């Protein structure tokens, strides 16, 4: 039986997965016990604690994960989707020669398997302040929690709860035309001419190890 995902398109490099997650910042949460039918979506920031990566975020209190986490830590999978897009076979060199080409879909993503837990309520404001600092810096803006009135901030914070995820395993998924090395430059050039999501795909392809 062939390996899936193919080794050419995946790796278990933790640092690469963390760097991708730090760039994407937005993930879906999937409890491994299957009790939650719908995925939960949330932004995360990554910090290093005792040489280990920790992802922290927050969710609205009406989220069913609050009840699940009230019973203790939960085994979960976090998935960060970096970029994806359709690749037309019209850009392949073989197309005018024999016509023996078909389309494909390139994608870049990473996933972590580990433990999700609720952050104690007394640590929520520090978590939110750290998230805001990271996200504001990424946008080149300067808003801080303290800029909001204290009573209003307390009211808004009471509607959410903090979460912390400790990864134990990871996998990086990068299907970026590694199986067509002679066509990669043409595919990258083509994706750069398209709209924004494809430009993101071109970025990952251009910085791929096999580029």
TrEMBL record:
Coiled-coil regions, chain positions: none
Alphabetical list of InterPro entries matching this protein: Split_barrel_FMN-bd (IPR012349), TR_PAI2-type (IPR007396)
Listed name of the protein: Transcriptional regulator
The organism of origin for this protein: marine metagenome
